[in-house]
Amino acid sequence: MNSVCTLVKTRETWRNAARALALVLLAATGQAHAQAHADSAGQPGLLRDINAVRQQGCEGQPGKAAPLRENAALSAAATRLSSGDRLDEALKAAGYRAVSGAQIILRGAGATLLTRASLGTSCSVLTQADLTEAGFHQHAAQTWIVVAAPFLPPSAAQAADVESRVLALVNEARAKPRRCGSESFPATRPVHLSPRLQAIAATHAADMARHNYFDHAGRDGNHVEERASSGGYRWRHIGENIAAGHTQAEAAMQDWLGSPEHCANVMSPDYTEMGSAFAVNNSSSAGIYWVKVFGTAR
């Protein structure tokens, strides 16, 4: 029995996005663009310039990023940055939960024209494809910009569709030969949905979300073997994958396939059925928790 986990907690998500979250202090020296930036303390002009850069792309990179939209909570976070808050503190105080984000400080006299030339190496920060929203605060000759991707997990009403998607992704993976670390797996038969395994997965996902922990062992010390047995599933083979922090099934699946032990669970011909679930708690460390349980009944 392979019992593995992928820890993609919020703090790991932020660590993986450390380059984006780090303060980018940019002394922008673009020409004054007073007429274009006269409205609303220059913010619409800045947003327009940022979106123009996202369309153009950075040097050596094609423009393909979708335009950002302004978000009032991010503007509130930008205001707090001007008072000395760290980015994570400012976002929390503004009530904005982000998957990834960045801050940039622009310094210059009056309104500043943003171009990919004036941004220099910081251009790649603003053109990250996953970013969707921006906020601004301007005081005197200094402007604070916050860009972020919001934490938007699926809703409970979408659970059936998401769980069906996870099953489809698993069977797409099993349909092709795959190497999981040092072990090679041939294509194998699809697994089918087990309502009983789905209920077992849902119980553990909900418990982790409600009590803010991430572990194969439940608070009672039980693992998937005990949870399956107590849930009425008489198993010959049983396995479990867990993850946290991902807001999309595709992202969770990508990480599982990138981990040798996760991948081995996905590809194992020993399993004939599976169940999956997610649970959301916005006040928890990870925000969202995923569980997949694979099994073969006796």
Provide an overview of this structure.
With 298 residues, the chain is an alpha/beta fold. It has twelve helices and eleven strands. The strands form three sheets. It has a five-stranded mixed β-sheet. Strands 8-10-11-9 form a four-stranded mixed β-sheet, with helices on both faces. It has a two-stranded antiparallel sheet with strand order 6-7. Helix 8 packs parallel to helix 11. The radius of gyration is 23 Å and the shape is elongated. The two termini are 15 Å apart. 40% of the residues are buried.
Total count of helical runs of at least 4 residues? 12
- The helix/strand class is alpha/beta
For the biggest sheet, the summary is: 5 strands, mixed
Find the count of extended strands (DSSP E, 2+ residues).
11
Overall pLDDT level: 85
Quick summary of this structure?
The protein is an alpha/beta fold and about 300 residues long.
Helix/strand layout:
Layout: H1 10-16, H2 18-21, E1 23-26, H3 43-56, E2 69-70, H4 72-81, H5 87-93, E3 98-107, H6 116-119, H7 123-126, E4 133-139, E5 142-150, H8 159-174, E6 178-180, E7 183-185, E8 192-193, H9 195-211, H10 224-230, E9 235-244, H11 249-258, H12 260-267, E10 273-280, E11 288-297
Parallel strand pairs: 1-3, 2-4, 8-10
Antiparallel strand pairs: 3-5, 4-5, 6-7, 9-11, 10-11
Helix pairs in contact: 4-5, 8-11, 11-12
